[in-house]
Amino acid sequence: MKRPLPAILAVMLGANALAAEQSATLDLRISSDDAVHYGEYNGLYEQRAYVIGELDLGGSLPWAADGLGRWSIDARNLGLGTYDAAIVVREQGRYRLALDFDGKRQFKRDDARTPFIGNDTLILPSNWVAGSTTADMAALGGPLRRFDAHKDRDIVRFDAMYLFGAHWRIDAGFKHEDKRGTEVLGAAMFVDAARGNAALLPAPIDYATQDFSSTVHYRNDRFNASLAYLYTRFDNEHTRLVWTNPYARVVEPVANYPTGQGALSLAPDYDRQQVRVDGSVAPLAGLDVQWDGAWSTTRQNDDFLPYTINPALIVTEALPRASLDAELVTRSADIRVNYRPAAEALRKLALRSAYHFDERDYDKPRDAYRYVRGDGASQPPALAAIYDIFPTVLN
Description:
Elements lengths: L6 E9 L7 E9 L17 E12 L8 E10 L5 E8 L3 E20 L6 E2 L22 E20 L3 E22 L7 E23 L3 E14 L3 E5 L16 E5 L4 E12 L5 E14 L25 E14 L11 E13 L4 E2 L16 E2 L8
Parallel strand pairs: 7-12
Antiparallel strand pairs: 1-2, 2-3, 3-4, 4-5, 5-6, 6-8, 8-9, 9-10, 10-11, 11-14, 12-13, 14-15, 15-16, 16-17, 18-19
């Protein structure tokens, strides 16, 4: 990796032909060297020219009375992976609609090398020479596949707000996020965990997350309350990462190169729902009552992977069930009462009371798993089974 140098601003062209409040800008930037550290988050990480567009437009809504309605388009860094654009339509005192497009990038390095070929199934080249240590692997001295370690996020968000009457307001929003890229994961095949056949693997990232929210608010001089519903869905395009064992003569013969494979499970799909209520009321002078309560549930039901990906290893007992089939339910409530007397003689007196409730219910059977260690040996005896007792998948 070369020493990072800052990008050079070469040309900037601006146009202001529409109105004084509107503008469009075309910005040409040239990165003078490989600037990975400089461009870790701003997208200027390669030695090349970048064309970056900016846009700032706005005006009055033709259907809105008294000039209270406005529309606007604001865009920054168009042409980079770190772009941001928003389209907003609003009418003061009535509604607001916003559509946002947002790009984020984290670029870690551009000089990563690996002998593995593939995406979620990694194989070795045909000329691979296995060995007990990396010093015995002759192909490591030859050309290796290059890959970039980076993460890109593309986010589309829609938000809406509408006021109806003097006291009511409703908010709603939807967000879709795609996260893609490649990260480096450590993995190993082993019988004894202290002496594993370790490898650094280029692992694919391909996630999609959807969030929906809706909230109803009510407010007057003495009382305000809101009721909210939130839903999240997470989907991972890849369920596992498979790789060929590059080592020989270290674990069980059937798990060595070229027939032995290892497999890692990746982040599971899940969905989450939450209902929340909060508010306050002042029934008397000096008396204030506040409340906040929530109920949420998170569910994960991906199918289990088999005990081992190597069919030559002996597995005598099947998995206790086909999937985790887990659900985490939480409930909470808080009530606070504050009172300060209005009488002059009692002005320094303050009375406070609070109640808190918190409950967590993790619904999942407790089973014994005759876990195959590191895809490197046959299934262990029942005495070596592992029990699942913690909700680690849902955290």
